[in-house]
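To whoever picks this up:

The parser on our side crashed when reading a file containing two proteins. I've narrowed it down to the boundary between the first structure block and the second sequence. Both blocks are reproduced below exactly, byte for byte. First block:
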Amino acid sequence: MAKDHKNYNSDGKSSEDRALDRFTDMLIEKIQTLQGDWKKPWFSENSTQWPKNLSGREYNGMNSLLLMMHAEKEGYKLPVWATFDRIAGLNYTQGKEGRTPAVDKDGEKLPVVSINKGEKSFPVFITVFTVVDPETKEKIKYDDYKRMSEEERAKYKVYPKLQVYNVFNVAQTNLQEARPELWKKLEDANSPKKFEQAGEQFSFEPVDRMIKDNLWICPIKEVKGDNAYYSISRNEIVVPTRQQFINGESFYSNLFHEMGHSTGAENQLNRLKPGQTFGSAEYAREELVAELGAALVAQRYGMTKNIKEDSAAYLKSWLNSLHESPDFLKTTLFDVKRSTGMITQRIDKIALDIEQGIDTARSEAKEEAKTDSETVGQDKPVLESIAAKAMPKEEPEQTIEEEHHYHRGR
């Protein structure tokens, strides 16, 4: 039996279990709010941008989703988070003589930065990996393991472990008063961005180039009609022409939903199987992965994502699953993380090429897209125990590609 490395609290629950309980309650509350009004977006216009730490490093898709939901609920304006130790560290500098109090340019001691009284932290998940040679018991760094060939990796065992860290939003501190210059810098770096469109003409160039030059992991086809879907058998995305959508945000956010499904292909993140039964628990969970992922990606690029009409029917089953099984939330969030990672990496890479004036060749871009998916999915073999899902073996009457419809006028 594997050794249990969880740290348990006085109530008998581990930090991970307590965090999952909190996430479950939060997601249930969010879905119940949306259930009362299908026109509400996943994130309101007042939501923050993609969450970051004080150093500007972005949180991953799973933590980003939860932090944005929490920030929206609490009304935080800046998407900047830090641990207690990181906040305390602002009061000191590290030099040759050790740690000394932080001072201003005149040598005067700076005001102390601290967490405001009564504020409560919020948990985030960090996955760490222990890599061990079963024969010699030698441990190596995970970064070194990732650089190895498949043959070299075969001799090692990799053990994933979720660790919980507690963070505070900068609004929960006195940072604005104690370090006004730093606060202003954070405000400037995180000013809200909104997707802009002029009249009937709208464009998000990185995605437009992705469609035109076939730079995604599968072809994306704009076809006049009412259906938006990802076809497993043909490995392609079909969406109505953009002129059929009420605005640009609706077109791109619906496309992000189908791109989310495409990341689950067998040769990518391997969530989907041909013949996945419409209406099944697996189908419903895949819809939630695609919905949450699309909401995250849309929010990242300043767009609004509303509930997809045919996804709304699954809200009740999502709520039941959330109530009944913590593992449902864990595996769902894990898949959202990996799916959004693939999408945003590709969009950001194309955006960088555009900024640098690079006209990426189609063949080169396809190879880079494959590399991106391998980078995001490289942990798949060692995390199968976390993300494994039973798929139906019988051929159903309806499959995912047949039931992803876009209804105009929403």
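<<boundary where parser fails>>
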Amino acid sequence: MTSKQRAYLKGLAMNMEPVLQLGKSSVTPENTAAVEEALVARELIKINVLQNCADDARQMAEILAERTHSQVVQVIGRKIVLYREGKDDKKRIILPK
């Protein structure tokens, strides 16, 4: 992913509300399945890491991206943005070249 594409996705994610929250249980198989379902429904998702979670948000983002075969767009504070290219042409995000 190029920096131009990453910047475009960051701009799209700026106005999004988080679709998932990760709490003190951190990254569990159930959370991973929920992220997988969200990525199937949407290509770009935002995840909120709650304050009672002791793990680092950057590490959690890398683990989730690896398990769901997605890409980490950005991690700012306790917000994680993940992207995975979808298969549906109608709802597909067109990335700049």
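After patching the parser it read the second block fine. The longest helix spans residues 29-41. The longest strand covers residues 44-49.
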